[in-house]
Design brief:
single chain, 590 residues, alpha+beta, four-stranded mixed beta sheet, 19 helices, 25 strands, 36% helix
Protein backbone atom coordinates (compact mmCIF):
# COMPACT_ATOMS: atom_id res chain seq x y z
CA UNK A 1 0.00 0.00 0.00
CA UNK A 2 2.65 2.55 0.89
CA UNK A 3 4.37 1.99 -2.44
CA UNK A 4 1.10 2.59 -4.28
CA UNK A 5 0.55 6.05 -2.70
CA UNK A 6 4.07 7.08 -3.61
CA UNK A 7 3.55 6.30 -7.32
CA UNK A 8 0.23 8.23 -7.42
CA UNK A 9 1.90 11.37 -5.87
CA UNK A 10 4.66 11.26 -8.39
CA UNK A 11 2.13 11.07 -11.25
CA UNK A 12 0.27 14.14 -9.91
CA UNK A 13 3.52 16.18 -9.66
CA UNK A 14 4.58 15.59 -13.28
CA UNK A 15 1.73 17.63 -14.97
CA UNK A 16 2.35 20.53 -12.60
CA UNK A 17 6.00 20.61 -13.61
CA UNK A 18 5.17 20.55 -17.28
CA UNK A 19 2.67 23.40 -16.79
CA UNK A 20 5.24 25.53 -15.02
CA UNK A 21 7.78 24.92 -17.75
CA UNK A 22 5.17 25.87 -20.40
CA UNK A 23 4.41 29.16 -18.65
CA UNK A 24 8.09 29.97 -18.50
CA UNK A 25 8.52 29.31 -22.24
CA UNK A 26 5.48 31.44 -23.12
CA UNK A 27 6.77 34.27 -20.97
CA UNK A 28 10.15 34.10 -22.69
CA UNK A 29 8.56 34.27 -26.16
CA UNK A 30 6.29 37.16 -25.19
CA UNK A 31 9.24 38.99 -23.67
CA UNK A 32 11.20 38.56 -26.91
CA UNK A 33 8.37 39.94 -29.05
CA UNK A 34 7.76 42.77 -26.59
CA UNK A 35 11.40 43.76 -26.67
CA UNK A 36 11.38 43.59 -30.47
CA UNK A 37 8.28 45.76 -30.64
CA UNK A 38 9.84 48.36 -28.37
CA UNK A 39 12.96 48.33 -30.52
CA UNK A 40 11.01 48.76 -33.76
CA UNK A 41 8.55 51.37 -32.54
CA UNK A 42 10.43 53.26 -29.88
CA UNK A 43 14.16 52.81 -30.15
CA UNK A 44 15.09 53.18 -33.83
CA UNK A 45 12.14 53.00 -36.23
CA UNK A 46 13.85 55.03 -38.94
CA UNK A 47 16.80 52.69 -39.25
CA UNK A 48 14.48 49.78 -39.97
CA UNK A 49 12.47 51.82 -42.45
CA UNK A 50 15.76 52.62 -44.13
CA UNK A 51 16.65 48.91 -44.23
CA UNK A 52 13.30 48.17 -45.87
CA UNK A 53 13.78 51.01 -48.32
CA UNK A 54 17.19 49.70 -49.32
CA UNK A 55 15.67 46.38 -50.40
CA UNK A 56 13.76 47.28 -53.58
CA UNK A 57 12.10 50.52 -52.39
CA UNK A 58 11.32 53.21 -54.97
CA UNK A 59 11.43 56.96 -54.42
CA UNK A 60 8.58 58.50 -56.36
CA UNK A 61 8.13 62.25 -56.97
CA UNK A 62 4.76 63.71 -56.01
CA UNK A 63 4.17 66.43 -58.60
CA UNK A 64 2.87 69.83 -57.52
CA UNK A 65 0.07 71.44 -59.51
CA UNK A 66 0.97 74.73 -61.16
CA UNK A 67 -0.89 77.81 -59.96
CA UNK A 68 -3.52 79.31 -62.27
CA UNK A 69 -3.07 82.65 -64.00
CA UNK A 70 -6.36 84.54 -63.64
CA UNK A 71 -7.93 87.65 -65.07
CA UNK A 72 -9.21 90.41 -62.80
CA UNK A 73 -12.52 88.58 -62.29
CA UNK A 74 -10.96 85.22 -61.43
CA UNK A 75 -11.49 83.76 -64.92
CA UNK A 76 -8.58 81.44 -65.86
CA UNK A 77 -6.18 82.63 -68.53
CA UNK A 78 -3.98 79.62 -67.77
CA UNK A 79 -4.90 76.59 -65.68
CA UNK A 80 -4.16 72.87 -65.37
CA UNK A 81 -6.19 69.93 -66.65
CA UNK A 82 -5.82 66.25 -65.88
CA UNK A 83 -2.83 64.54 -67.41
CA UNK A 84 -0.46 61.67 -66.69
CA UNK A 85 3.23 61.01 -66.38
CA UNK A 86 4.26 57.66 -67.86
CA UNK A 87 7.13 56.00 -65.93
CA UNK A 88 9.05 52.74 -65.99
CA UNK A 89 10.53 50.38 -63.40
CA UNK A 90 13.76 49.29 -65.15
CA UNK A 91 14.01 46.16 -62.99
CA UNK A 92 10.90 44.95 -64.84
CA UNK A 93 11.37 46.53 -68.27
CA UNK A 94 15.08 46.06 -69.01
CA UNK A 95 14.75 42.61 -70.60
CA UNK A 96 12.03 43.75 -73.02
CA UNK A 97 13.31 47.30 -73.46
CA UNK A 98 13.58 47.34 -77.30
CA UNK A 99 10.03 46.08 -77.82
CA UNK A 100 8.52 48.38 -75.17
CA UNK A 101 10.50 51.40 -76.44
CA UNK A 102 9.23 50.84 -79.96
CA UNK A 103 5.61 50.83 -78.86
CA UNK A 104 6.01 53.83 -76.51
CA UNK A 105 7.81 55.95 -79.10
CA UNK A 106 5.03 55.20 -81.58
CA UNK A 107 2.10 55.83 -79.24
CA UNK A 108 3.48 58.76 -77.20
CA UNK A 109 5.72 60.36 -79.85
CA UNK A 110 8.80 60.12 -77.62
CA UNK A 111 12.36 59.57 -78.79
CA UNK A 112 13.08 55.84 -79.19
CA UNK A 113 16.68 55.87 -78.01
CA UNK A 114 16.05 58.05 -74.95
CA UNK A 115 13.14 55.79 -74.04
CA UNK A 116 15.33 52.71 -74.49
CA UNK A 117 17.90 54.17 -72.08
CA UNK A 118 15.20 54.93 -69.51
CA UNK A 119 13.71 51.42 -69.75
CA UNK A 120 17.14 49.93 -69.03
CA UNK A 121 17.79 52.39 -66.20
CA UNK A 122 19.82 55.54 -66.47
CA UNK A 123 21.60 54.55 -63.25
CA UNK A 124 22.37 51.13 -61.82
CA UNK A 125 19.61 49.95 -59.52
CA UNK A 126 17.14 52.59 -60.75
CA UNK A 127 13.50 51.68 -60.08
CA UNK A 128 11.75 54.82 -61.40
CA UNK A 129 12.38 56.53 -64.75
CA UNK A 130 10.34 59.15 -66.60
CA UNK A 131 9.16 58.13 -70.07
CA UNK A 132 6.82 61.02 -70.91
CA UNK A 133 5.26 63.89 -68.97
CA UNK A 134 1.99 65.73 -69.37
CA UNK A 135 0.38 63.06 -71.46
CA UNK A 136 -3.43 63.22 -71.95
CA UNK A 137 -4.99 60.81 -69.45
CA UNK A 138 -6.81 58.65 -71.99
CA UNK A 139 -3.74 58.26 -74.19
CA UNK A 140 -1.54 57.32 -71.21
CA UNK A 141 -3.91 54.74 -69.73
CA UNK A 142 -4.67 53.21 -73.13
CA UNK A 143 -0.97 52.83 -73.87
CA UNK A 144 -0.26 51.11 -70.55
CA UNK A 145 -3.26 48.82 -71.05
CA UNK A 146 -1.98 47.85 -74.49
CA UNK A 147 1.43 46.96 -73.05
CA UNK A 148 -0.16 44.81 -70.36
CA UNK A 149 -2.24 42.97 -72.94
CA UNK A 150 0.99 42.15 -74.76
CA UNK A 151 2.43 40.76 -71.52
CA UNK A 152 4.84 43.57 -70.71
CA UNK A 153 5.10 44.83 -67.11
CA UNK A 154 6.81 47.67 -65.32
CA UNK A 155 5.10 50.63 -67.03
CA UNK A 156 2.79 52.79 -64.94
CA UNK A 157 1.22 56.25 -64.71
CA UNK A 158 0.84 58.97 -62.12
CA UNK A 159 -1.09 62.24 -62.12
CA UNK A 160 0.73 65.03 -63.96
CA UNK A 161 -1.44 68.10 -64.74
CA UNK A 162 -1.21 69.55 -68.24
CA UNK A 163 -1.00 73.33 -68.68
CA UNK A 164 -3.98 74.65 -70.59
CA UNK A 165 -4.89 78.06 -71.96
CA UNK A 166 -8.70 78.09 -72.18
CA UNK A 167 -8.92 81.21 -74.34
CA UNK A 168 -6.17 80.20 -76.78
CA UNK A 169 -4.53 83.39 -78.05
CA UNK A 170 -6.20 85.82 -75.62
CA UNK A 171 -3.39 87.64 -73.78
CA UNK A 172 -0.96 84.94 -74.96
CA UNK A 173 1.82 87.50 -75.47
CA UNK A 174 1.55 88.38 -71.78
CA UNK A 175 0.74 84.97 -70.28
CA UNK A 176 3.45 83.09 -72.18
CA UNK A 177 3.62 79.32 -72.53
CA UNK A 178 5.21 76.16 -71.13
CA UNK A 179 7.72 73.71 -72.52
CA UNK A 180 7.76 70.08 -71.39
CA UNK A 181 9.43 70.79 -68.06
CA UNK A 182 9.92 74.55 -67.86
CA UNK A 183 8.26 77.88 -68.64
CA UNK A 184 9.43 79.49 -71.85
CA UNK A 185 7.86 82.91 -71.93
CA UNK A 186 5.60 85.58 -70.44
CA UNK A 187 4.21 85.49 -66.92
CA UNK A 188 4.78 81.71 -66.87
CA UNK A 189 8.50 82.43 -66.80
CA UNK A 190 8.55 85.77 -64.98
CA UNK A 191 6.60 84.41 -61.99
CA UNK A 192 7.71 80.78 -62.22
CA UNK A 193 8.75 80.51 -58.56
CA UNK A 194 5.27 81.53 -57.43
CA UNK A 195 3.38 79.46 -59.98
CA UNK A 196 5.47 76.27 -59.95
CA UNK A 197 5.06 75.18 -56.35
CA UNK A 198 7.33 72.48 -54.92
CA UNK A 199 7.25 68.78 -55.80
CA UNK A 200 7.03 66.27 -52.97
CA UNK A 201 8.37 62.74 -52.63
CA UNK A 202 7.25 59.37 -51.30
CA UNK A 203 8.90 55.98 -50.96
CA UNK A 204 7.04 52.93 -52.27
CA UNK A 205 7.69 49.19 -52.21
CA UNK A 206 7.04 47.04 -55.26
CA UNK A 207 4.91 44.08 -54.25
CA UNK A 208 4.59 42.12 -57.49
CA UNK A 209 5.94 41.61 -60.94
CA UNK A 210 3.42 44.19 -62.15
CA UNK A 211 5.05 46.90 -60.04
CA UNK A 212 2.02 47.35 -57.77
CA UNK A 213 3.19 49.82 -55.14
CA UNK A 214 2.50 49.97 -51.42
CA UNK A 215 3.66 52.97 -49.35
CA UNK A 216 6.24 52.06 -46.71
CA UNK A 217 4.82 52.69 -43.26
CA UNK A 218 7.86 54.57 -41.97
CA UNK A 219 8.95 56.09 -45.30
CA UNK A 220 9.82 59.73 -45.68
CA UNK A 221 6.77 61.45 -47.12
CA UNK A 222 7.06 65.04 -48.35
CA UNK A 223 3.73 66.43 -49.47
CA UNK A 224 3.80 68.54 -52.66
CA UNK A 225 3.08 72.24 -52.29
CA UNK A 226 0.92 73.44 -55.17
CA UNK A 227 1.79 76.72 -56.86
CA UNK A 228 0.14 80.01 -55.89
CA UNK A 229 -2.27 81.55 -58.41
CA UNK A 230 -1.38 84.86 -60.07
CA UNK A 231 -4.27 87.29 -60.49
CA UNK A 232 -3.78 89.88 -63.21
CA UNK A 233 -5.59 93.15 -63.90
CA UNK A 234 -6.59 91.93 -67.38
CA UNK A 235 -10.28 91.73 -68.29
CA UNK A 236 -10.43 88.62 -70.49
CA UNK A 237 -13.48 89.69 -72.52
CA UNK A 238 -12.10 93.19 -73.07
CA UNK A 239 -8.72 91.70 -74.00
CA UNK A 240 -10.43 89.49 -76.60
CA UNK A 241 -12.32 92.43 -78.08
CA UNK A 242 -9.21 94.62 -78.18
CA UNK A 243 -7.21 91.91 -79.97
CA UNK A 244 -10.03 91.34 -82.47
CA UNK A 245 -10.39 95.01 -83.42
CA UNK A 246 -6.63 95.48 -83.62
CA UNK A 247 -6.17 92.37 -85.77
CA UNK A 248 -8.84 93.58 -88.21
CA UNK A 249 -7.03 96.90 -88.61
CA UNK A 250 -3.60 95.32 -89.05
CA UNK A 251 -5.04 93.11 -91.77
CA UNK A 252 -7.01 95.91 -93.44
CA UNK A 253 -3.97 98.20 -93.70
CA UNK A 254 -1.50 95.38 -94.39
CA UNK A 255 0.58 96.47 -91.40
CA UNK A 256 3.55 94.62 -89.95
CA UNK A 257 2.15 94.67 -86.41
CA UNK A 258 0.08 96.60 -83.93
CA UNK A 259 -0.44 97.11 -80.20
CA UNK A 260 -3.24 98.52 -78.06
CA UNK A 261 -3.63 99.14 -74.34
CA UNK A 262 -6.55 100.03 -72.07
CA UNK A 263 -5.87 101.58 -68.65
CA UNK A 264 -8.10 102.47 -65.75
CA UNK A 265 -7.33 106.18 -65.48
CA UNK A 266 -7.62 106.38 -61.71
CA UNK A 267 -5.81 103.20 -60.65
CA UNK A 268 -3.36 102.60 -63.49
CA UNK A 269 -4.61 99.03 -63.85
CA UNK A 270 -4.14 97.67 -67.36
CA UNK A 271 -7.39 96.04 -68.46
CA UNK A 272 -6.09 94.98 -71.88
CA UNK A 273 -2.67 94.89 -73.53
CA UNK A 274 -2.88 93.45 -77.01
CA UNK A 275 -0.26 92.55 -79.60
CA UNK A 276 -0.88 91.49 -83.20
CA UNK A 277 0.29 89.12 -84.62
CA UNK A 278 -0.16 86.81 -81.66
CA UNK A 279 -0.26 83.03 -81.16
CA UNK A 280 -2.23 80.22 -79.53
CA UNK A 281 -0.52 79.52 -76.21
CA UNK A 282 -1.60 75.88 -76.49
CA UNK A 283 0.36 75.51 -79.75
CA UNK A 284 3.39 77.84 -79.48
CA UNK A 285 5.48 75.68 -81.82
CA UNK A 286 3.17 76.63 -84.69
CA UNK A 287 3.89 80.36 -84.33
CA UNK A 288 6.73 82.45 -85.71
CA UNK A 289 9.32 83.11 -83.03
CA UNK A 290 8.95 86.87 -83.53
CA UNK A 291 5.28 86.63 -82.49
CA UNK A 292 5.87 84.88 -79.15
CA UNK A 293 6.88 87.93 -77.11
CA UNK A 294 5.14 91.16 -76.12
CA UNK A 295 6.10 93.66 -78.83
CA UNK A 296 4.18 96.32 -76.93
CA UNK A 297 6.75 96.15 -74.12
CA UNK A 298 9.87 94.73 -75.74
CA UNK A 299 10.09 96.83 -78.92
CA UNK A 300 10.77 100.55 -79.12
CA UNK A 301 9.45 103.07 -81.62
CA UNK A 302 9.25 106.82 -81.95
CA UNK A 303 5.91 108.08 -80.58
CA UNK A 304 5.38 110.84 -83.09
CA UNK A 305 2.87 113.61 -82.49
CA UNK A 306 1.22 112.10 -79.41
CA UNK A 307 4.37 113.42 -77.74
CA UNK A 308 3.17 116.99 -78.46
CA UNK A 309 0.58 116.61 -75.72
CA UNK A 310 3.35 116.11 -73.15
CA UNK A 311 5.35 119.06 -74.49
CA UNK A 312 2.31 121.36 -74.37
CA UNK A 313 1.30 120.17 -70.88
CA UNK A 314 4.82 120.81 -69.58
CA UNK A 315 4.93 124.30 -71.10
CA UNK A 316 1.58 125.21 -69.54
CA UNK A 317 2.60 123.80 -66.16
CA UNK A 318 5.86 125.79 -66.25
CA UNK A 319 3.96 128.99 -67.04
CA UNK A 320 5.67 129.30 -70.43
CA UNK A 321 2.57 128.85 -72.60
CA UNK A 322 -1.24 128.85 -72.50
CA UNK A 323 -3.97 127.41 -74.76
CA UNK A 324 -4.95 130.71 -76.41
CA UNK A 325 -1.35 131.81 -76.98
CA UNK A 326 -0.83 133.05 -80.53
CA UNK A 327 1.83 131.77 -82.93
CA UNK A 328 2.71 132.64 -86.52
CA UNK A 329 3.54 129.31 -88.12
CA UNK A 330 5.49 129.40 -91.41
CA UNK A 331 5.35 126.67 -94.08
CA UNK A 332 8.86 125.52 -93.15
CA UNK A 333 11.32 126.25 -90.37
CA UNK A 334 15.07 126.27 -90.99
CA UNK A 335 17.14 125.00 -88.08
CA UNK A 336 20.90 124.37 -88.09
CA UNK A 337 20.94 120.73 -89.21
CA UNK A 338 17.73 120.44 -91.21
CA UNK A 339 14.50 122.10 -92.31
CA UNK A 340 11.45 121.20 -90.25
CA UNK A 341 8.14 120.85 -92.06
CA UNK A 342 4.53 119.95 -91.29
CA UNK A 343 2.57 116.95 -92.49
CA UNK A 344 0.39 119.30 -94.57
CA UNK A 345 1.43 122.04 -96.99
CA UNK A 346 0.68 125.60 -95.98
CA UNK A 347 2.00 129.11 -96.08
CA UNK A 348 2.13 131.38 -93.07
CA UNK A 349 -0.77 130.47 -90.78
CA UNK A 350 -1.86 131.86 -87.45
CA UNK A 351 -2.50 129.17 -84.83
CA UNK A 352 -3.13 129.23 -81.11
CA UNK A 353 -1.40 126.61 -78.96
CA UNK A 354 -4.74 124.75 -79.02
CA UNK A 355 -4.65 125.01 -82.81
CA UNK A 356 -1.11 123.62 -82.93
CA UNK A 357 -2.34 120.54 -81.06
CA UNK A 358 -5.59 120.28 -83.06
CA UNK A 359 -3.77 120.56 -86.42
CA UNK A 360 -0.72 118.61 -85.17
CA UNK A 361 1.82 121.15 -86.36
CA UNK A 362 5.48 120.20 -85.92
CA UNK A 363 6.62 123.74 -86.64
CA UNK A 364 4.20 125.28 -84.17
CA UNK A 365 5.28 122.81 -81.46
CA UNK A 366 8.96 123.65 -82.01
CA UNK A 367 8.22 127.39 -81.80
CA UNK A 368 6.33 126.89 -78.53
CA UNK A 369 9.08 124.62 -77.13
CA UNK A 370 11.69 127.31 -77.74
CA UNK A 371 10.68 128.55 -74.29
CA UNK A 372 12.32 125.39 -72.83
CA UNK A 373 15.95 124.43 -72.58
CA UNK A 374 16.75 120.78 -73.39
CA UNK A 375 17.26 120.08 -69.67
CA UNK A 376 13.84 121.52 -68.78
CA UNK A 377 12.02 119.51 -71.46
CA UNK A 378 13.78 116.25 -70.61
CA UNK A 379 13.10 116.74 -66.90
CA UNK A 380 9.36 116.90 -67.57
CA UNK A 381 9.39 113.93 -69.94
CA UNK A 382 11.16 111.78 -67.37
CA UNK A 383 8.57 112.76 -64.79
CA UNK A 384 5.94 111.58 -67.27
CA UNK A 385 7.78 108.21 -67.21
CA UNK A 386 9.64 108.24 -70.53
CA UNK A 387 13.15 106.81 -70.80
CA UNK A 388 12.66 104.32 -67.95
CA UNK A 389 11.03 100.92 -67.45
CA UNK A 390 7.53 100.71 -66.03
CA UNK A 391 8.46 97.44 -64.24
CA UNK A 392 4.98 95.99 -64.63
CA UNK A 393 6.26 92.41 -64.75
CA UNK A 394 6.88 91.87 -68.47
CA UNK A 395 10.18 90.15 -69.06
CA UNK A 396 12.51 91.94 -71.48
CA UNK A 397 10.79 95.32 -71.16
CA UNK A 398 12.70 98.11 -72.87
CA UNK A 399 13.31 101.41 -71.07
CA UNK A 400 13.13 103.25 -74.38
CA UNK A 401 15.59 105.97 -75.34
CA UNK A 402 15.59 109.53 -74.04
CA UNK A 403 18.90 111.35 -74.16
CA UNK A 404 19.94 113.32 -71.10
CA UNK A 405 19.13 117.02 -71.32
CA UNK A 406 22.66 118.15 -70.56
CA UNK A 407 24.02 116.43 -73.70
CA UNK A 408 21.01 117.05 -75.94
CA UNK A 409 21.50 119.64 -78.66
CA UNK A 410 18.88 122.27 -79.39
CA UNK A 411 18.17 120.55 -82.73
CA UNK A 412 17.57 117.22 -80.96
CA UNK A 413 15.31 119.03 -78.51
CA UNK A 414 13.26 120.35 -81.44
CA UNK A 415 12.65 116.84 -82.74
CA UNK A 416 11.96 115.40 -79.29
CA UNK A 417 9.34 118.11 -78.73
CA UNK A 418 7.20 116.73 -81.60
CA UNK A 419 7.94 113.03 -81.02
CA UNK A 420 11.08 112.09 -82.95
CA UNK A 421 14.64 111.30 -81.74
CA UNK A 422 13.31 109.41 -78.71
CA UNK A 423 11.69 106.00 -78.35
CA UNK A 424 9.08 104.49 -76.05
CA UNK A 425 7.09 101.35 -75.37
CA UNK A 426 3.30 101.17 -75.32
CA UNK A 427 2.82 101.16 -71.54
CA UNK A 428 5.15 104.13 -71.10
CA UNK A 429 3.23 106.22 -73.59
CA UNK A 430 -0.16 105.19 -72.27
CA UNK A 431 0.86 106.04 -68.69
CA UNK A 432 2.12 109.45 -69.85
CA UNK A 433 -1.16 110.31 -71.61
CA UNK A 434 -3.03 108.93 -68.60
CA UNK A 435 -1.22 111.45 -66.42
CA UNK A 436 -3.04 114.26 -68.23
CA UNK A 437 -6.31 112.33 -67.92
CA UNK A 438 -5.75 111.85 -64.18
CA UNK A 439 -5.47 115.54 -63.35
CA UNK A 440 -1.68 115.69 -63.66
CA UNK A 441 -0.92 112.75 -61.34
CA UNK A 442 1.00 109.86 -62.85
CA UNK A 443 -0.16 106.47 -61.56
CA UNK A 444 2.35 103.74 -62.27
CA UNK A 445 0.70 101.12 -64.53
CA UNK A 446 -0.02 97.64 -63.16
CA UNK A 447 -0.63 94.23 -64.74
CA UNK A 448 -0.77 92.27 -61.48
CA UNK A 449 -3.62 92.57 -59.02
CA UNK A 450 -2.35 92.83 -55.46
CA UNK A 451 1.33 92.06 -55.04
CA UNK A 452 3.75 89.60 -56.62
CA UNK A 453 7.51 89.16 -56.88
CA UNK A 454 9.19 88.35 -60.18
CA UNK A 455 11.86 85.66 -60.30
CA UNK A 456 14.36 88.53 -60.54
CA UNK A 457 13.17 89.89 -57.21
CA UNK A 458 11.16 92.89 -58.46
CA UNK A 459 7.97 93.58 -56.48
CA UNK A 460 5.07 94.49 -58.77
CA UNK A 461 1.33 94.95 -58.59
CA UNK A 462 -1.45 97.32 -57.64
CA UNK A 463 -0.43 97.17 -53.97
CA UNK A 464 2.88 98.86 -54.75
CA UNK A 465 1.67 101.29 -57.44
CA UNK A 466 2.98 104.83 -56.98
CA UNK A 467 1.33 108.20 -57.52
CA UNK A 468 3.44 111.20 -58.54
CA UNK A 469 2.27 114.68 -59.39
CA UNK A 470 3.84 115.69 -62.70
CA UNK A 471 1.85 118.79 -63.66
CA UNK A 472 -0.77 120.85 -61.90
CA UNK A 473 -4.44 120.01 -62.06
CA UNK A 474 -5.05 123.26 -63.92
CA UNK A 475 -2.38 122.46 -66.53
CA UNK A 476 -3.83 118.98 -67.03
CA UNK A 477 -7.34 120.33 -67.53
CA UNK A 478 -6.12 122.98 -69.99
CA UNK A 479 -4.27 120.30 -71.97
CA UNK A 480 -7.33 118.05 -72.01
CA UNK A 481 -9.44 120.90 -73.41
CA UNK A 482 -6.92 121.33 -76.23
CA UNK A 483 -6.98 117.58 -76.89
CA UNK A 484 -10.77 117.74 -77.31
CA UNK A 485 -10.19 119.88 -80.42
CA UNK A 486 -8.27 117.00 -82.07
CA UNK A 487 -11.50 115.02 -82.62
CA UNK A 488 -13.53 118.09 -83.57
CA UNK A 489 -15.07 117.49 -87.02
CA UNK A 490 -14.27 121.06 -88.16
CA UNK A 491 -10.98 121.91 -86.47
CA UNK A 492 -9.33 118.56 -85.69
CA UNK A 493 -7.50 115.86 -87.64
CA UNK A 494 -9.18 112.82 -86.03
CA UNK A 495 -12.98 113.06 -86.06
CA UNK A 496 -13.09 109.26 -86.59
CA UNK A 497 -11.82 108.86 -83.01
CA UNK A 498 -15.03 110.25 -81.55
CA UNK A 499 -17.19 107.99 -79.38
CA UNK A 500 -20.89 108.74 -79.91
CA UNK A 501 -22.44 110.31 -76.83
CA UNK A 502 -19.16 110.94 -75.01
CA UNK A 503 -16.71 113.80 -74.75
CA UNK A 504 -13.32 112.54 -75.98
CA UNK A 505 -9.82 113.99 -75.65
CA UNK A 506 -7.01 112.57 -77.75
CA UNK A 507 -3.99 113.04 -79.97
CA UNK A 508 -2.80 111.51 -83.22
CA UNK A 509 0.72 110.38 -83.97
CA UNK A 510 2.65 109.67 -87.17
CA UNK A 511 6.34 108.84 -86.83
CA UNK A 512 9.04 107.63 -89.16
CA UNK A 513 10.37 104.16 -88.39
CA UNK A 514 14.01 103.30 -87.92
CA UNK A 515 15.37 100.18 -89.61
CA UNK A 516 16.93 98.10 -86.78
CA UNK A 517 19.72 96.90 -89.09
CA UNK A 518 20.81 100.17 -90.72
CA UNK A 519 19.77 102.54 -87.92
CA UNK A 520 18.24 104.82 -90.56
CA UNK A 521 14.67 105.77 -91.37
CA UNK A 522 13.35 103.27 -93.92
CA UNK A 523 10.33 105.16 -95.22
CA UNK A 524 7.74 103.27 -93.16
CA UNK A 525 5.72 104.84 -90.36
CA UNK A 526 4.11 104.11 -87.01
CA UNK A 527 0.57 105.49 -86.73
CA UNK A 528 -0.96 106.05 -83.31
CA UNK A 529 -3.78 107.57 -81.31
CA UNK A 530 -3.91 108.07 -77.57
CA UNK A 531 -6.72 109.56 -75.57
CA UNK A 532 -9.23 109.28 -72.76
CA UNK A 533 -12.96 109.54 -72.02
CA UNK A 534 -15.08 111.07 -70.72
CA UNK A 535 -12.73 114.00 -71.33
CA UNK A 536 -14.08 116.01 -68.39
CA UNK A 537 -14.12 113.10 -65.92
CA UNK A 538 -11.78 110.49 -67.34
CA UNK A 539 -12.32 106.81 -66.53
CA UNK A 540 -10.26 105.04 -69.17
CA UNK A 541 -7.22 105.76 -71.31
CA UNK A 542 -6.71 103.92 -74.60
CA UNK A 543 -3.57 104.03 -76.71
CA UNK A 544 -3.21 102.36 -80.12
CA UNK A 545 -0.23 102.07 -82.46
CA UNK A 546 -0.08 100.42 -85.91
CA UNK A 547 3.37 99.76 -87.35
CA UNK A 548 4.40 99.93 -91.00
CA UNK A 549 1.03 99.90 -92.79
CA UNK A 550 1.26 99.50 -96.55
CA UNK A 551 -2.05 101.27 -97.18
CA UNK A 552 -1.90 105.07 -96.94
CA UNK A 553 -3.36 106.72 -93.88
CA UNK A 554 -2.53 108.73 -90.79
CA UNK A 555 -2.91 108.34 -87.06
CA UNK A 556 -6.42 109.79 -87.16
CA UNK A 557 -7.72 107.63 -90.01
CA UNK A 558 -5.99 104.35 -89.09
CA UNK A 559 -5.54 104.28 -85.30
CA UNK A 560 -8.40 106.68 -84.51
CA UNK A 561 -11.22 104.27 -85.41
CA UNK A 562 -9.56 101.50 -83.38
CA UNK A 563 -9.48 103.85 -80.39
CA UNK A 564 -13.15 104.71 -80.93
CA UNK A 565 -14.32 101.07 -81.03
CA UNK A 566 -12.28 99.98 -78.01
CA UNK A 567 -13.19 103.04 -75.95
CA UNK A 568 -16.89 102.67 -76.79
CA UNK A 569 -16.80 99.02 -75.74
CA UNK A 570 -15.04 99.58 -72.41
CA UNK A 571 -17.28 102.52 -71.47
CA UNK A 572 -20.34 100.41 -72.12
CA UNK A 573 -18.93 97.32 -70.41
CA UNK A 574 -18.22 99.21 -67.20
CA UNK A 575 -21.43 101.23 -67.26
CA UNK A 576 -19.84 104.67 -67.59
CA UNK A 577 -22.54 107.19 -68.45
CA UNK A 578 -21.95 110.30 -70.58
CA UNK A 579 -21.23 113.38 -68.51
CA UNK A 580 -23.13 115.73 -70.77
CA UNK A 581 -20.14 118.08 -70.85
CA UNK A 582 -19.83 120.65 -73.62
CA UNK A 583 -17.02 120.36 -76.18
CA UNK A 584 -14.09 122.73 -75.94
CA UNK A 585 -14.60 126.16 -77.53
CA UNK A 586 -10.94 127.09 -77.59
CA UNK A 587 -10.00 128.96 -80.78
CA UNK A 588 -7.53 127.22 -83.09
CA UNK A 589 -6.72 130.28 -85.21
CA UNK A 590 -6.45 133.99 -84.61
Amino acid sequence: MPSTRTRRGASRGAPMLRLRIGFVLIAMVLSFFGARLVQLQGVDPRSYAAMAASEGAVKVPLLAERGDILDRNGVPLADSIKGKVVFADPSLTADDAPEIARLLSDRLSVDYFRTLTALRGRQEGSRYEYIARRVPSTLATDTVAELEELGYTGIGTDDDPIRDYPAGDVAANLIGYMGTDEPLGGFERTFDKQLAGTDGEATWQSSSSKSVRIPLRESTLKEPQDGTPLRTTIDRDLQWFTQKVLAQTVQQYQAASGSAIVMDTRTGEILALADVPTFDANEPSEADEADLGARSMNDTYEPGSVEKVLTAAALIDAGKAFPRQKFKVPGSLARQDRVIGDWFDHGMIRLTLAGIIAKSSNIGTVLAADAFTPIQLVDYLRRFGLGQKTDIGVRGETPGILKSGDVMTSQEKDRVAFGQSLSVNVAQMAAAVNTVANGGVRVSPSLVSGRAVTDDGVVVGTDVATRTRVISKEAARATARMMEKVVDPEDGVAPKAQVPGYLVAGKTGTAQRVNPVTGLYDGSTSLSFGGFAPADDARFTVYVVVHAPKVDGGGGSVAGPVFSRIMGYVLGRYGVEPTGGRPSRLPVEW
